[in-house]
Write a structure and sequence with these properties.
Number of domains: 2
Strand content: 15-25%
Helix content: 25-40%
Strand order of the largest sheet: 1-10-9-4-5-6
CATH superfamily of the largest domain: Glutaredoxin
CATH class of the largest domain: Alpha Beta
Number of strands: 10
Number of helices: 7
Order of helices and strands: HEEEHEHHEHEHEEEEH
């Protein structure tokens, strides 16, 4: 028995057999890409809801409103990091997610800001942030309804679970991503996703795909007047 037969592995085939299978799979991969383009185009046409409630977050520069978090830009992406007020460490899954994020410098170039928000007190967040060596802006929503309103803290006594949690008995903190859009000083909620809905958003393009403006490249099917630039340009 050869060593190759002792471990689980794909079938061993000829170069011709592999090429035929690879070409067949490529057709499916291209179809998947086009389907994602279609979904992203539909996402860019979602309606948006005006945020009427005033939220106050605690950050390194003091108290901040949701409008402040845009840092003057048009779009805001919030990663809801699971960190309960009574915990001393952040969620391992959320930690892995943030560790997987590398260079997001394309976001501010495309009028978009990225922040993390959790319910834990700011001092706990900053301690954990320093231990992990992260540079992202991380704020505390403790004492506000923000986590409840955007369905990342599930407490049946406070809010009804929605989205993929509505048929479960899940309670407590949930991972998620929410997107907001600014017109003047008015803030609008445009999108949220939860659990596996955000597992592929660990780089700039994937995060931009969640926003109303998308990647802002001319290959995209976007509404008339949306900001766009040459693809790969």
């Amino acid at each position: 028995m050869s060593h190759a037969e002792e471990i689980p592995h794909p079938p061993i085939v000829t170069e011709e057999e592999w090429l035929a299978e690879r070409v067949s799979l490529l057709a499916e991969e291209k179809a998947h890409t086009r389907e994602m383009d279609r979904i992203n185009a539909k996402r860019r046409r979602l309606g948006m809801v005006k945020v009427e409630k005033d939220y106050v977050f605690e950050g390194t520069e003091g108290k901040k409103s949701l409008l402040d978090l845009f840092d003057g830009r048009r779009q805001l992406i919030v990663y809801h990091f699971m960190f309960e007020p009574t915990s001393d460490v952040g969620c391992p899954g959320c930690t892995s997610y943030i560790n997987a994020i590398n260079d997001l410098s394309d976001l501010p170039k495309r009028d978009t800001t990225f922040v993390m928000i959790s319910r834990a007190p700011l001092e706990k967040l900053l301690k954990y942030k320093a231990e992990q060596g992260w540079a992202w802006n991380w704020l505390s929503s403790g004492g506000t309804d923000f986590n409840y309103d955007y369905k990342v803290t599930i407490d049946p006594a406070v809010t009804e679970p929605v989205y993929n949690y509505k048929d479960t008995k899940a309670t407590g903190e949930m991972p998620g991503t929410s997107v907001f859009f600014r017109i003047g000083e008015d803030v609008y909620h445009t999108y949220s996703c939860y659990a596996r809905g955000g597992e592929s958003t660990t780089h700039s393009y994937a995060l931009l795909d969640l926003t109303p403006y998308g990647r802002q490249e001319d290959f995209e099917d976007s509404p008339e007047g949306w900001p766009q630039r040459p693809t790969y340009g």
